[in-house]
Design goal:
Length: 107
């Protein structure tokens, strides 16, 4: 479709709709389903990256490069998730050790 000035005008795509639905359900999930628990936001964030990237994949790459861009996404996502898990493990281990130290010092 072209505007009066001859510029190309794009209409909303399935990707745009998917992002809006994902954001709306995310607010519902965190607010209602989890009753505003802090951990729920992180649970929702780790799952919503798939929807966001998949929604815009067609806008990020043409049909011939779509597989390559999707592969980059997967290749970059794995180290990021592993780093997040490592940080969580370090935090949990430190919290457990400080809790044990507090228990022993109060005796």
């Amino acid at each position: 479709m072209k505007s009066a000035q001859g510029a190309r005008v794009t209409s909303p795509t399935k990707g745009d709709t998917s992002v809006v639905i994902t954001a709306a359900f995310g607010a519902y999930f965190v607010g209602v389903v989890c009753d505003h628990q802090p951990w729920c936001t992180f649970a929702w964030i780790f799952g919503s990256d798939e929807n966001l990237i998949a929604a815009y994949l067609a806008k990020l790459a043409d049909a011939q490069a779509m597989g390559r861009v999707s592969g980059w996404r997967l290749g970059l996502r794995l180290p990021g998730r592993l780093a997040s898990l490592g940080i969580c493990l370090a935090y949990i281990s430190a919290a457990q050790q400080s809790a044990q130290a507090a228990r022993f010092s109060s005796r």
